[in-house]
């Protein structure tokens, strides 16, 4: 692939989003999350990044996801949010920070959570 794009990531990033994602996923070791990280943060194209942190928040908030695959969770955001690279990057970073500091896998700090009013899991945990 290096030869195909003359060793220049700008040439790779210039291709259309679906083809770019397909090419990235064809590289050994690059999965969906990594491909979407590259697309969003390096190529500056809209592809919402799903990771364990974001998925944990979605599940604890009880948001309905049609399916259990990466793309099912991704579609939840992409179908409801305006396609905006900068906002998606910031939103993803905020979700990750919330999950890492408050909505932790073990011993979440539900009483301190800014999303408590929206979170059935947190409300159950503090009652």
From TrEMBL:
<keyword id="KW-0227">DNA damage</keyword>
<dbReference type="InterPro" id="IPR011257">
    <property type="entry name" value="DNA_glycosylase"/>
</dbReference>
<keyword id="KW-0004">4Fe-4S</keyword>
<keyword id="KW-0326">Glycosidase</keyword>
<dbReference type="GO" id="GO:0006284">
    <property type="term" value="P:base-excision repair"/>
</dbReference>
<dbReference type="Pfam" id="PF10576">
    <property type="entry name" value="EndIII_4Fe-2S"/>
</dbReference>
<keyword id="KW-0234">DNA repair</keyword>
<dbReference type="InterPro" id="IPR003265">
    <property type="entry name" value="HhH-GPD_domain"/>
</dbReference>
<keyword id="KW-0411">Iron-sulfur</keyword>
<dbReference type="GO" id="GO:0046872">
    <property type="term" value="F:metal ion binding"/>
</dbReference>
<dbReference type="GO" id="GO:0016798">
    <property type="term" value="F:hydrolase activity, acting on glycosyl bonds"/>
</dbReference>
<dbReference type="GO" id="GO:0051539">
    <property type="term" value="F:4 iron, 4 sulfur cluster binding"/>
</dbReference>
<dbReference type="GO" id="GO:0140097">
    <property type="term" value="F:catalytic activity, acting on DNA"/>
</dbReference>
<protein>
    <recommendedName>
        <fullName>HhH-GPD domain-containing protein</fullName>
    </recommendedName>
</protein>
<dbReference type="InterPro" id="IPR004035">
    <property type="entry name" value="Endouclease-III_FeS-bd_BS"/>
</dbReference>
<comment type="similarity">
    <text>Belongs to the Nth/MutY family.</text>
</comment>
<keyword id="KW-0378">Hydrolase</keyword>
<keyword id="KW-0408">Iron</keyword>
<dbReference type="InterPro" id="IPR003651">
    <property type="entry name" value="Endonuclease3_FeS-loop_motif"/>
</dbReference>
<dbReference type="InterPro" id="IPR023170">
    <property type="entry name" value="HhH_base_excis_C"/>
</dbReference>
<keyword id="KW-0479">Metal-binding</keyword>
